[in-house]
Design a protein that fits this description.
- This protein has 4 helices and 15 strands.
- The protein is of the alpha+beta class.
- A hairpin with a 2-residue loop joins β6 and β7.
- The chain is globular and about 45 Å long.
Length: 313
């Protein structure tokens, strides 16, 4: 159905509300980018208001379904290894807006005289979406290969003219986190602050990989587990619900999957108490193949397009 001018303006106003809600929940300091909506069609309005948030939403979703109730001193990792790469296509309704990639470096990196996985998550707008606001974000972690706990995490955000460069150093033994914020050059330190931790924690990226070391097959539908992690100077404790299993058609084949839904506190980003569903392969690799998030306006879908370097073939 073709939208009339009046309808288009109404949709534009809803999109402005959507933009403001995401900002209030995830990042409250970004300048509000105003465009005269009467000059844009509905597709353009949605693109502008969604694409700049995709990397943060993607990582937030992964973090929200990462349990810590199964905590082990030295969990055994048979799920992933060096060189693994997972690629996703991100869509909002009928719009393909961005690509996301989870990548483990091919070689071991040393932190605190111990071997670590260096893991990066990249989010980047593509095609016509870049016309309305280019996004090129990188979130990462150094994950101890033995304890599967993060020693360092970082995020380098490029969204239009906005920049944020941050590094968090974890002292898991002494329950401390040192947060360093850098200038736009990512070299000059702008501020340093130390935070107390309630115990061992995961960061936004490491938590997802920690999950993959756990014995998910022991879960029963309806069971809940807890999440504990450190992100954006806050400690998060959220309940995760296991919903059951499902056979799913994906770009990498038909997969038997586990389905998880995090119980998300009331906020201005997601719609409903259980707005997010994550489908994880029911094999030894335990990779996410689909994520769906119901937002206040519409929904976001993250669909896997290829997987390389998997530990278990």
């Amino acid at each position: 159905m073709k939208l009339t001018k009046q309808h288009a303006i109404t949709k534009g106003e809803l999109a402005i509300v959507f933009d403001g809600q995401i900002r209030n929940f995830i990042h409250q300091t970004t300048l509000f980018f105003v465009i005269p909506f009467e000059k844009l069609n509905f597709r353009q309005v949605l693109s502008i208001n969604c694409m700049r948030k995709l990397p943060r939403i993607f990582l937030l979703i992964l973090f929200l379904w990462t349990p810590s109730a199964f905590s082990q001193q030295n969990p055994e990792n048979d799920a992933f290894t060096f060189g693994e790469e997972l690629n996703f296509e991100v869509s909002y309704g009928w719009l393909n807006l961005a690509d996301a990639k989870l990548q483990i470096n091919r070689r071991s990196h040393t932190q605190n005289n111990r071997p670590h996985y260096k893991i990066d998550v990249f989010g980047k707008t593509k095609g016509a979406a870049t016309i309305f606001g280019k996004v090129n974000d990188n979130w990462g972690t150094y994950l101890d290969t033995n304890t599967i706990q993060p020693s360092v995490s970082y995020r380098n955000i490029e969204e239009g003219k906005y920049r944020k460069n941050e590094k968090v150093s974890f002292d898991q033994s002494n329950r401390k986190a040192l947060v360093e914020l850098f200038e736009k050059d990512n070299k000059t330190i702008k501020s340093v602050k130390e935070y107390d931790l309630p115990g061992t924690v995961q960061d936004l990226v490491s938590g997802f990989y920690y999950l993959r070391t756990l014995e998910l097959e022991k879960l029963k539908p309806g069971e809940s587990i807890l999440i504990k992690g450190f992100f954006d100077k806050e400690i998060y404790n959220i309940k995760l619900i296991f919903e059951g299993t499902e056979k799913l058609e994906t770009e990498i084949g038909t997969k038997d999957t586990y389905i998880f839904s995090p119980q998300i506190p009331k906020n201005k980003l997601f719609r409903g108490e259980y707005p997010v569903k994550v489908w994880v392969t029911k094999d030894q690799n335990k990779i996410p193949v689909k994520i769906k998030a119901n937002l206040f306006l519409g929904s976001l879908n993250f669909d896997i397009v290829n997987a390389k370097g998997l530990r278990n073939n």
